[in-house]
Amino acid sequence: METVLQIKNLTTGYTSKQSKAIVTAHINAELHKGELVCLIGPNGAGKSTLMRTISGAQKPLNGEVFLNGQDIYSIPPKQLAKRLSLVLTERVSAGMLSAYEVIALGRYPHTNWSGKLSQDDHRIIQEAVEMAGAQELVDRSLSELSDGERQKIMVARAFAQEPEVMILDEVTAFLDLPRRVEIMKLLRNMASQSGKSILLSTHDMDLALRGSDRIWLIPKGGDLHIGSPEDLVLNGTFEAAFRSEGINFDRQSGSFNIHTEYDLSVSIVGGDQESIYWTQRAMERAGIKVEPNVNTRVIIENTEDHQFWKFVDEDHEKSFDSIHELVLALNERRKAVAV
Amino acid sequence: MSTTAVTSATTKPTKVRLQSHSRLFLFPVLIIAVIAVFLMELGIGSVSIPVSGIIDVLTGTAADATWSTIILELRLPRTLAAMMGGAALGAAGLQLQTLFRNPLAGPWALGLTAGAQLGVALVVTAAAVIGSSFLEKFEFLSNLSIVAGAMLGCLLVLLLMVAISRYVSTITLLIFGLMLGYLAQGLISVILHFTNQSQGKIYAGWNDGSFAGVYWEHFPVLVPMVVLGLIGGWLMAKPLNAFLLGENYARSMGMSVKRTRLITLGCAVLLAGPVTAYCGPVLFLGLIIPHMARGIFNTSDHKILMPAVMLLGAIVAQAADLFVHLPWEKHFLHLNAVNALLGAPVVMWVILKNKKMRGFEF
Hints:
The complex is a heterodimer. Chain A is 34% helix and 27% strand. By secondary structure, chain A is of the alpha/beta class. Chain A folds into two domains: 3-98 and 161-250, Rossmann fold (3-Layer(aba) Sandwich); 265-338, 2-Layer Sandwich (Double Stranded RNA Binding Domain). Chain A has a six-stranded mixed beta sheet with strand order 6-7-8-3-9-10, sandwiched between helices. A five-stranded mixed beta sheet of chain A has the order 14-13-15-16-17, covered by helices on one side. Chain A has a four-stranded antiparallel beta sheet with strand order 2-1-4-5, with helices on one face. In chain A, β7 (165-169), α6 (177-194) and β8 form a beta-alpha-beta unit. In chain A, α5 runs parallel beside α6. Chain B has one domain: ABC transporter involved in vitamin B12 uptake, BtuC (Orthogonal Bundle). Chain B has helices spanning 2-11, 26-43, 51-58, 65-99, 112-130, 144-165, 170-192, 197-207, 219-235, 237-243, 247-252, 257-279, 285-297, 302-324, 335-353, 355-358. In chain B, α4 packs across α14, α13 (285-297) packs across α14 and α13 (285-297) packs across α15 (335-353). Classes of the chains: A alpha/beta, B mainly alpha. Chain A binds chain B through residues 55, 57, 77-82, 85-86, 88, 90, 92-97, 100-102, 104-106, 108-109, 111, 113-115, 117, 119, 122-123, 126-127, 130, 154, 161, and chain B through 14-19, 235, 237-238, 241-242, 244-246, 248-249, 251-256, 294, 298-301, 303, 356.
């Protein structure tokens, strides 16, 4: 596997006249060709500082970053821009520039002083447009576009820069779920189809777990963990990293539990896979533990035209037409038991 | 269905498009307009001179000595000053608006003009106090020290504004610039107390702002500086385009933010300083001309806007000057009054149109 970006014993942080403030220490990692890596971790773990340092925008306190073997801090800015591009969280406003003109700015490090675009430049821009699926957007002014469309254009611009590595810092932070999924899909395509190496820092655990080839997990004050999402889940790294934050990561579902203490257990009986899954989600949300072979049961039954839920325990039996009603009744019951 | 969609997508040839700005044909129109207003400036006045007469004078074949004197001694320097002043202020305004990411920036709004005024007032007063004999009426304008004073004032204010712009919002910066202007005015009137009446009058005349105070002997200083500033502005079109995306993005694309800022500010001082030194404070033009250019060409691309503001600036400044010098029965119009009538509504429109300016957008 071809290593594009190599981070060696990197310590990030800030220096002032009096002191050094270390944010993350002794980081070692590699980014391979054509790989999409998500950097995740709780707020304050130093993701942004690490991203800035890796992208060469900030000097490290110690250690080195190599871009295809060359020390990144020794590459002049214009040369570096040809090899590494950035997308940031900030919402850009670009006056009256059209989306096409913004993507064309990706050619900035490649063009001469006048910024004149050659036929070749236009072809590369067009490729970026098509890669991003932004054909419909290019003629519109950037100021008319939604936040999601703008970020898509900014990603296309970073792609048009023809870098070896793309670094994206929390670019989906302000977007809604469909837009986040869209950007993630776009980045996956860019990595797999054109061999770009992409490093994306994100808060979106779910998308990171589903979309990245590998994850760099950086816990607060801890060491960087690297692995495929599934490996990190199975070996408990995920759980351990977030437990210190007071959050429970459930290995089975690959998501976070809101409740951690249960005062009631039920078994779920019957139903198809989907119904079972969502009924279980509802139980967990209500703080009810789902276990096999408990006397208290939720039975999912189907008649010809509708589904209903039956709650059964030693002395009760009642049917509900929706999960909502079931949860309400269970909550009532728990209150009564508590009294 | 889906297969046809896929094939059509893959077989579609990569569309290569050339940058096409549908409004580029406006450049010849603007150039013609510059020439038209130029001829009107030379021809219209208390003595009316036909175009054929103007051409005769300019080619040195005129029979009428009066016409020659009127054009060559009075109207031509004034018109050329308006042309250069307008182009210079427009270009400076565009550079400052992009650099400060502020649609209402301009040499006047940012207090550069006030800085230049203060510089000139200091030089005039210093000369009066020292009592140098060469300060005959209007003669002082040809003195390089006035230009130096104006440019130094410009530069100091600009540096102050750059420092402050890091800590305050768009609107706050403008209010700060305007207050700086009032502060300069206050200081100026205190300073002028120490000068004699005739010096004060000269200052007051200069302070009205007019292209009519520029004479041939000023051009050897004015022209090189303005031309240098305009060329610099044109050369900076590419980095200024990158600047539209903000400092962080510009830097990530390999632009040297420090160098761009330094050169652009240097150009702004080269443009606004000498023009203010010779023409006095000319208000509003630097602010409104970039907006007119954006509106007309429907773009923010500096490669188009730079030449556009130069041409538009030349047109608007000449037209305003022409309006002032129309053969009115009484001469009471000032250049800055015309500029204000033209400029203030534009500023109001920009504020109302711009969400960020209204303060609704975070």
